[in-house]
Amino acid sequence: MAQPTHEWRPPERPWQEQDLSDLPEDGSRYEIIDGSLHVTPPSGYGHQLLADEIRSALQAAAPAGWWVIREAGLRAPVANLIPDITVLRPSAPTDGLWTHPSDVALVVEIESPSSRRYDRLIKPPLYAEAGIPHYWRVERGDFGPVIYRYQLVKGVHYNMVGTLGPDDPVQLDEPWPMRLDPSAWPR
């Protein structure tokens, strides 16, 4: 096991956004939820390829001015989160490390074994509390990816509005009108 090259200690208070800059750039995803640090190991190639395909499909259908970003930081009320994919409104600033929730139209999380609980149980209420209008959770199944699509209701929680499977090309209205066909996406 490699030894750290410097002495590192966690803060003696709840974790804050500025503490993230002291962490190593090792490919892990560092997020803060309710003052606690959550670390997710780097994602595998299959996860990254699927995220790239989804991002490319969204960007290809995006109206002028919209941004589709991989692993953009999101500053939520009690958290600093890093969704796999973030769709930013045309009015969003394009500099800085952390996006304000009002600039976000959609977040997408692609499940992996190390993120399943976060993507299903922990992150959706945080995204809802932040006011993110749309949330997609993607499962990588044996026959291809399945997208579970959720919409914010009364600014409080998400309701599922549909699923999109590998053999289900569909016309969607969120975050803008588009046709998605995941049949060619990696499994």
Task: Tell me about this structure.
The chain is α+β, with helices and mostly antiparallel strands and 187 residues long. It has one domain (29-184): tt1808, chain A, CATH 3.90.1570.10. The chain contains two helices and 13 strands; from the N terminus they run E-E-H-E-E-E-E-E-E-H-E-E-E-E-E. A six-stranded mixed sheet has the order 3-6-8-9-10-11. Strands 2-1-5-4-7 form a five-stranded mixed sheet, covered by helices on one side. Strand 4 (73-76) and strand 5 form a beta hairpin. Residues 1-16 have a biased composition (Basic and acidic residues). This is Uma2 family endonuclease. GO terms for molecular function: endonuclease activity. InterPro entries: Nuclease_put_TT1808, Restrct_endonuc-II-like, Uma2.
State the helicity in percent bands.
10-25%
Per DSSP E runs of 2 or more residues, the count of β-strands stands at: 13
Number of helical stretches of at least 4 residues = 2
Strand content: 35-45%
CATH superfamily grouping = tt1808, chain A
Along the chain, the helix and strand elements come as: EEHEEEEEEHEEEEE
> Which CATH architecture?
Alpha-Beta Complex
Q: Are there runs of 5+ residues with pLDDT below 50, and where?
A: none
CATH top level label: Alpha Beta
Keywords: Endonuclease, Hydrolase, Nuclease
Biased composition (Basic and acidic residues): 1-16
Region (Disordered): 1-26
Protein name: Uma2 family endonuclease
